[in-house]
Amino acid sequence: MKYLVKFTFLLISVTLFSCWSDNTEDILDDNSDSQVSLPEEDNDLIENSVFSSVVEIKFGSSVGIVNPHSSSSVSVTTSGNNVIVKSTIKEVEYIISGETSNGSLTIYSDYKFKLTLDGVDITSSEGPAINIQSKKRIFVVVNNNTVNKLTDSNNYTSSSEDKKATFFSEGQLIFYGNGKLNITAKYKHALASDDYIRFKDADLTVSATVSDAIHANDAIIIEDGTFNLTSSSDGIQCDKGYIMIGGGTININCADDGICISTDAATADGYISILGGVINITTTGTSAKGVKAMGNLYYNDASIYIKTSRSGSEGMESKNIMTIDGGEIEIEAYDDCLNASKAIIINGGNIYCYSSSNDGIDSNGTLTITGGIIVSIGTTTPEEGFDCDNNMFKITGGTLVGLGGSSSSPTTSVCTQPTIWYSGSCTTNNIINISTSTGATVCSFVVPRTLNQMSFLYSSADLYTNNSYIINTGGKISGGESFHGLYSGETYSGGTQAYSFTINSMLTKVGTSTGGGGNPGGGGGRPW
Questions:
Q1: Is 47 helix (H, G, I), strand (E, B) or coil?
Q2: Which of 160, 290, 395, 476 is most buried by a 10 A CB count?
Q3: Is there a contact between 180 and 152 (Cβ–Cβ < 8 Å)?
Q4: DSSP 3-state assignment of 497?
């Protein structure tokens, strides 16, 4: 595994709180500790456990049972193809195989155990296909080269027990093995735990889900695997804990949130940390989020692609602080692509944001950019490419393009990298080019939408104070590579000079504006 998520439940609250202080200014001053590195939880490693006894259960026209402890500590009873296991001993492995169109497996255990799925196909007519009524740790091993299918019923038989998923557990679920596990959920969730779920490896497909595809109370940890999740509600949801993703390929098509925390707590709980993997999320519901953290959201070294299409739907949202240190982010959202309540901090990565009706990047608090390549597209005024209201907007590095009807203004007293703000109008596929006074290209950008009132914000390490520059429009680009319209290594030619100007401070504004404007045709633009 390329990126390993490591954690200890005992240390989570203390470590995370110290790394993500609620004091925004402290975080803006020092982001070096924003990535949480948590040690491996030894108890979740299957090699650290011993399972010396094997109980075999094979479904078919009748249930075949091999139980070496039938006379004492492991009871296996059947009613048709409904199997109930009650165990009072340690170190038991249950191997499940065979097919039933009208059965189920329920397990009660006083101790942790290993559940091996070895080509089993269970369809239940009374409730969950697998129902684990034990609060102990369960190692679920999906044997390689097997296909396993679980389907629950439309209605569950009344019971005092909590059971809310096709595969449900009161205790922790730790998945191993890359055999296929296909779950169809007709009642509520597909896979759920009232504790936490951890995937060391998996090949999981969820379809026809009435509610969430994966649902846990305390935590969801994905270290590796392949996940294809279709849901009528959320793709991956945790009630009040945290979600950590360190690798794997995750494809989510859902009506509500793709990956989310539902608790309303901007504390150590409620955070999402994405440290690796390839994630594709498509949401179709109103006000749905691709990724929603009620606490902090940390992102690095992953590749995520998000598309939302309904009113109020957003790409990635944090109700506290969002920190991006690297990786790939591409978002097409109806509403804001990136949104945070307290602060957005971008230290690296390749980031593309395109909003069809709002801001590209929107911080309700401060916005800090120290690195990365960022193309952020908002819509017509008052929407913006970069929006942080009247709060601090700090730029010290990176290459960024912001396009919209307006923009928040960089705070010059804290910026160390110059920014150009060019206003005017633009049409789809028009080119905006910034060159030095000697003709060397600094920036070539192909505009993706028509704006009668345009704010074009550009900042990079290629801009220098006391140097003169020219803005050209139109023309053509040959060669080079494009990152969503922002070119590198290209040759620009044939444009019309719109403005010439000299950078005298950390923010230079040229173009047309109600606050003043530069002179067209290269007549020496000036700050508004």
A1: helix
A2: 290
A3: no
A4: strand
